[in-house]
Amino acid sequence: MVSISSLTLTRSIRHLPGSIVTQRRADRVPSEHGSGRRVKTQGRDVASTGGGWHSGRAGFPAVVRSSGRPARLESGATDERGADVESLAERYLDAVAAQLGRLRDEELPAIGAAAEALADAAAGGHRIFAFGCGHSSLPVYDLVYRAGGLALINPIVVPGTGATDPPPATLSTAVERLPGLATAVLDNTPVQSGDVLILVSLTGRNAVPVEMARVAGERGLTVVAVTSRECSEAAPSRDPSGLKLAEVAHHVLDCKVGIGDAVLDADGLPQRFSPTSGVLGAAVLQLLVASTVEVLLGRGLTPPMLMSANVDGGQEWNARVLAENADRIFYL
Questions:
Q1: Is 81 left (phi over 0), alpha (psi -120 to 50) or beta?
Q2: Is residue 41 assigned to a domain?
Q3: Chain-centre distance for alpha carbon 156
Q4: 326: left (phi over 0), alpha (psi -120 to 50) or beta
Q5: Domain extent for 253
Q6: Is residue 93 domain-resident?
Q7: The domain that contains 303 carries what CATH number?
Q8: Does an H or E element contain 227, and which?
Q9: Are residues 221 and 191 in contact, defined by beta-carbon separation less than 8 angstroms?
């Protein structure tokens, strides 16, 4: 693990308002006359002239709403007209399924191109690093020392940038906006020309990820960004350069998360809830690893993969893999 031990934190904390996404399920949507009709959305926004789902305002995706009724938690419930009523849990699954479907339909070529870069680094004796601030750090940790994971991926750990470590949790909101921090982090990280840096940032607007991508590129690293184009395009940059992560990375992987992250809306709550960036961010990174494995195997190379330490023989397997790749692993 690459860890930076000393920081100066000077920025105030501000919070962005929530917003949100799409609905995919082919289901009944009440019309303005009270009758239902079947709508097949195929992963696109669902519109309704009455209650139920609705299209968002101009430039914003549809929100998965409560259809003007109290939330029903049981599956198979019906409203007073006999139309199917989905529980909030079902609606969340529908929203996530729609976003995952878009990943499959739209992002696999970009993921494949980024996987070629990771495979080049792995095959060429270079290293792979990954970093994210706040909750964007969580998908990164899901790559590291992971059962079934690629052993070569190293997290860059900077105190104050994790989701909750160290507390208070609001600290990362301020830290990720600090100009100059990313350069200091890279100065104290064993990155070299030819390495790959994976950066996760939903909006890609804050100073730390933008600066880290720019400086890493200047130092000869290939930068892979995991971000949401929709979120990024909706907000101005907070980096002094005026640029965003998607504008300075070599490879951009769009996680398809909507503005504000949360996807559900219900009567009695003024704000949207149930974010999907954790699920989608982790999915994009696991797709990237799977594609990298595929590329390496296609070249006749065996990637150093880890096993679960809770499977018989797993711990011994991992010890061997880690020892064989010790010169490129920094999290031990």
A1: alpha
A2: no
A3: 16
A4: alpha
A5: 2-7+106-259+276-328
A6: no
A7: 3.40.50.10490
A8: strand 222-227
A9: yes
The type of residue at 210 is V
Query: Using CA atoms, how far apart are residues 277 and 161, in angstroms rounded to an integer?
Result: 17
Mean pLDDT over the full length of the chain: 82
pLDDT at position 46, please? 36
Q: What is the pLDDT of residues 105-145, one digit of tens each?
A: 999 999 999 999 999 999 999 999 999 999 999 999 999 99
- With respect to residue 281, please indicate whether it lies within any of the assigned structural domains: yes
Phi, psi of 264 (to 5 degrees): -110, 155
| Token couple for 145 | 């020392």
Q: Mean of the pLDDT values across residues 204-217? A: 98
pLDDT bucket at 33, cuts 50 / 70 / 90: very low
Q: Is the alpha carbon torsion for 304, 309, 315, 317 positive or negative?
A: negative
Angle between helices 277-298 and 108-123 (to 10 degrees): 60
Torsion of CA 216, 283, 152, 5, to 10 degrees: 60
Using CA atoms, how far residue 154 sits from 43, 89, 213, in Å, is 34, 35, 16
Question: What whole-number distance in Å separates Cα of residue 229 and Cα of residue 246?
Answer: 8
The neighbour count for residue 26, using CB atoms within 10 Å, is 12
Mean pLDDT within 274-302: 98
Please tell me the distance from the alpha carbon of residue 13 to that of residue 321, in angstroms, as a whole number: 42
Q: How many residues does the chain have?
A: 332
pTM attached to this predicted model: 0.78
- The residue with greater pLDDT, 81 or 65, is 81
Q: How many domains does the chain have?
A: 1
- Provide the 8-state DSSP code for 228: -
What pLDDT score does 2 carry?
60
3-state secondary structure of 251: strand
- Report how far residue 262's alpha carbon sits from residue 220's, in angstroms, rounded to the nearest whole number: 36
SS3 297: helix
Q: Which residue type sits at 186?
A: L
Residue 64: both structure tokens together = 């998965």
The verdict on residue 69 lying in a domain is no
Query: Is residue 50 within 8 Å of 67, Cβ to Cβ?
Result: no
